[in-house]
Automatic annotation (TrEMBL):
Keyword vocabulary terms for this entry: Endoplasmic reticulum, Membrane, Mitochondrion
Similarity comment: Belongs to the putative lipase ROG1 family.
Upper lineage: Eukaryota, Fungi, Dikarya, Ascomycota, Pezizomycotina
Residue ranges occupied by any DUF676 domain in the UniProt entry: 151-262
Record-given protein name: Uncharacterized protein
A GO term from the CC aspect: endoplasmic reticulum
UniProt keyword Membrane, yes or no: yes
Major localization class: endoplasmic reticulum
Length: 856
């Protein structure tokens, strides 16, 4: 017997002609239960929990299942649920709150539009609906029903739950894990009878013990495929949430069962029955790991918060136990064993991580060939090497595609980069055909300019033609860790050429980290491994010593993105690379408008073109980004998430008015610069990441950058100001706050500017050209500089500019340049409310400063 849902019901055998609106109207006609309120703005479909009054019916769904329709409805409490369950529904309808078997929550309107099935499997003592639900009396969020269907690419997924008799308090329940696994396969098969359904990929999303049920089902499917013709093992993938895979010792397994017993109220005799599964569980895991012909892709997650169990804070499933076959489980921040599968909104940390995991699994399933070698053909080969081993030809149309961030890319997201992409594609083709001596390509530019997107678009193009490996290191994840993750994904296959007729899984597990990386390097460089590409994104994010560890011997077919082309130049010399250089500049105005328009389309969805809402404002919004794609993306995201709820279709208009009211020098509100979408960087963080790559605190390049941010930048006026000879400057040694910069010789200043160039805080087309600085970077530096430091910087610049003019020891054009700097500083003072008297200038200069201030 399945557990009942606390406040949701399921209605089955509904006529196909019935609609969701009809169901809601039915509740109104019955009286007493309010309908689900229409969302307050067109964007709130992504925020379905916001701004709702306390209505009884908080969420619902209606989908086709086996020739009928099945509905779900959620209410604000158990009493409302019971009342709704007793309504006078049409004859033949079946109402329950158990959710046993299969319940389809979402199905696209056309069969042709469905790309994947997703089936959620709950853990012990769970309900197939409530396990995945979060919320309170005024709102509900069952993410499989309320969020995932509106999150691309899963708007093209059929989403269902599987409920089984895990109510282990029920003394009539004598089911075991293997019974549940068989039932899972049979129930899923019952909704996959059509030919198109049978060939469709399916991903099992599993919580806790539900993962062992699914794992056992895969083992059974592999052993007895003839019993389950509606499911093919090559179409299966799994996502595990807190599943105890590695609890194979008696102590570990018993500890897990004790925790589950306390959390879920499991009765003693069932615990004893589950204890007996331990030895069989070891066999089940080994049987799963030994699937060679069609090993299903999977992704594991672990909890990070302890549950209070009997007065003791306990991790129900530790991270090591949640991993499988050497794959480390990814932790879900701030989530315990119960919470890790429940998400109150789309910005919950766990939701984004799970969606990314689903995208990765779906990407692998959609890449799998529809025809593969039979088991008989497989067994003819000596030693039974893996079907994708280096010496075993890859099936037609399949290639390795490994690395976090590769999956879910559509390859059609580039805007305004046609010339750069064509150049990248041309050189890449020549590298593959070996018609060029080029061995590496460097794509450089400031942070957020589109380097990664260009690289991933190319990777998508070659995903079935070449082996693609992506390394994306960061401060939190070293090159070694990123490379080890890829090596582990291929695992024992790297050893197949040297160790035949041996247990490759055991050999691989016995290797240490350096040996595994060495195995990958050796395989990557070998001729028989085929055409390989190693993509290294943001190579200057980690120390150069780690970069050396990432590069294979005799590196070839290396594609690099960097903010520091000088670093790549050093690698070119050390590794004898032949590098082709591509530099990304700001997008042109028309391209920025198209990019901004597309970003709004992505947020609005459902074919709502942004012209419906922001036709008069796209140009203004795109112009604010000054050719910077990341800035445009964050502005659109800020408007959509922060303003739409309150201003609806006038959100963009409200934003433009807010910007226009501000001072002309403060183009973007500070809150936009610091706005951070979930799992993404803010504009401020992107610039800060470049700043952190500068040399240590004793090297004054960042101080110089701050000074430049308060100068006139047109026509390299800042360089003229910095290089101007002032033999009298030592008279002001005690009055200038940044004398180390002002008194330095030109060679030192050039060296500090070179440091800014290395991290792309400033960019130039050649070594001889003066650096250019993006206007949004300049605004950010001005905004984040403390007021007292602002005053000191402006005071120094005003003193040097006006004293130079007063000394009259330079040309008229220089005086004009100096006057421009002084005027610019007074405008900055006005923008930030700084009075001339605060600058601490000598009395004679203070009077002139006030005259400029008052005149402008």
């Amino acid at each position: 017997m399945a557990t009942v849902s606390a406040r949701s019901i399921r209605i089955r055998h509904i006529d196909e002609a019935f609609t969701l609106e009809s169901l809601r109207a039915l509740y109104v006609q019955q009286g007493g239960v309010g309908t689900e309120q229409s969302v307050l703005s067109y964007f709130s479909r992504w925020l379905p929990y916001t701004s709702r009054p306390a209505l009884s019916c908080l969420g619902s769904s209606l989908s086709v299942q086996n020739g009928y329709k099945v509905a779900t409805a959620s209410f604000n409490d158990e009493n409302a649920k019971r009342s709704a369950a007793k309504y006078a529904y049409p004859a033949g309808w079946i109402v329950d709150d158990k959710f046993d078997g299969i319940t389809i929550l979402h199905s696209p309107t056309t069969e042709h539009g469905i790309e994947v099935d997703i089936c959620a499997i709950h853990g012990p003592q769970g309900n197939a609906f409530d396990t995945w639900e979060a919320g309170n009396e005024t709102r509900t969020s069952m993410w499989l029903r309320d969020y995932l269907p509106y999150t691309p690419p899963f708007n093209r997924a059929r989403i269902m739950t599987f409920g089984y008799s895990s109510q282990v308090k029920d003394r009539e329940n004598v089911s075991e894990i293997r019974d549940w696994a068989k039932n899972l396969l049979s129930q899923v098969g019952s909704v996959r009878k059509q030919e198109t359904e049978r060939k469709r990929p399916i991903i099992f999303v599993c919580h806790s013990l539900g993962g062992i049920v699914a794992r056992d089902a895969i083992v059974r499917l592999n052993a007895h495929p003839e019993e389950y013709p509606c499911i093919r093992i090559q179409d299966c993938g799994l996502l595990f949430l807190g599943t105890p895979h590695s609890g194979t010792t008696l102590a570990e397994w018993n500890a897990f069962l004790s925790s589950i017993a306390a959390v879920a109220g499991v009765r003693t005799e069932v615990i004893e029955k589950l204890r007996s599964f331990n030895s069989a569980g070891v066999d089940s895991k080994e049987a799963f790991n030994s699937i060679k012909i069609h090993p299903p892709p999977y992704y594991c997650f672990s909890e990070t918060k302890r549950l209070n169990i009997g007065g003791k804070l306990t991790l129900v499933v530790i991270q090591d136990s949640a991993g499988l076959n050497g794959a480390v489980a990814e932790p879900i921040p701030d989530s315990d064993h119960r919470q890790m599968c429940r998400y109150e909104h789309i910005f919950a940390p766990g939701y984004g991580l799970v969606v990314e995991g689903l995208e990765k699994i779906q990407g692998k399933l959609l890449l799998k060939p529809k025809s593969a070698r039979s088991e008989e053909e497989f067994e003819e080969l000596p030693g039974h090497p893996l079907v994708t081993a280096a010496r075993f030809p890859l099936p037609s149309g399949k290639a390795y595609y490994e690395g976090k961030g590769l999956f879910g890319r559509g390859g059609d997201r580039l805007v305004g980069r046609a010339a750069e992409y064509d150049e990248l594609r041309r050189v890449t083709s020549e590298m593959l055909d070996e018609t060029t001596e080029i061995t590496a390509i460097s794509v450089s530019g400031i942070g957020g300019i589109g380097k990664t997107e260009l690289l991933l678009t190319l990777a998508h193009r070659y995903r079935n033609k070449s082996n693609i490996f992506l390394l994306r290191p960061s401060v939190e994840r070293s090159f070694t860790e990123a490379l080890l993750s890829i090596a582990n994904n291929i695992g024992s296959e790297l050893l197949a050429t040297r160790h035949r007729n041996q247990d490759l899984h055991r050999l691989w597990s016995d290797l240490d980290v350096s040996q595994k990386i060495e195995a990958f390097h050796g395989w990557f460089s070998a001729e028989e491994s085929g055409k390989n590409f190693l993509l290294i994104d943001d190579i200057d994010a980690v120390p150069q010593s780690e970069i050396k560890a990432a590069l294979p011997q005799g590196p070839r077919n290396i594609l690099i993105t960097t903010r520091n082309p000088i670093l790549v130049k050093a690698l070119e010399d050390e590794y004898h690379l032949q590098v082709h250089w591509i530099r990304l500049a700001n997008l042109a105005d028309n391209d920025m408008m198209e990019y901004t328009s597309r970003r709004f389309e992505n947020f609005l969805g459902d074919g709502n073109h942004p012209s419906t809402y922001i036709a008069d404002h796209i140009e203004t919004v795109s112009r604010l980004a000054v050719g910077h794609p990341l800035v445009a993306s964050r502005i659109v995201s800020y408007i959509a998430t922060n303003l739409t709820e309150w201003h609806g279709p006038k959100a963009a208009e409200h934003f433009v008015q807010e910007v226009q009211k501000a001072h002309t020098l403060r183009k973007l509100p500070v809150k936009v610069l610091k706005y951070k979408p979930m799992f993404q960087y803010s504009i401020a963080e992107t610039f800060e990441s470049s700043r952190k790559r500068l040399p240590g605190p004793d090297e004054p390049s960042w101080t110089l950058m701050q000074l430049i941010a308060f100068m006139v930048l047109d026509d390299s006026a800042y360089m003229h100001f910095l290089s101007l000879e002032r033999p009298w400057i030592f008279e002001y040694k005690g009055k200038l706050h940044f004398h180390d910069i002002w008194f330095a010789d030109l060679d030192d200043k050039q060296a500090w500017l070179s440091s800014l160039r290395k991290v792309s805080l400033g960019t130039a087309r050649s070594q001889t050209e003066h650096l250019h600085f993006h206007p949004i970077l300049i605004q950010y530096i001005q905004e984040q500089t403390e007021e007292k430091v602002k005053i000191r910087i402006i005071g120094d610049i005003m003193l040097l500019a006006m004293e130079s003019i007063q000394r009259s020891d330079q040309s008229a054009s220089t005086d004009i340049m100096l006057s421009a700097h002084a005027k610019h500083c007074t405008n900055i003072c006005k923008a930030y409310g700084i009075l001339p008297a605060a600058l601490g200038l000598p009395q004679s200069l203070a009077r002139k400063c006030k005259l400029i201030f008052d005149r402008d």
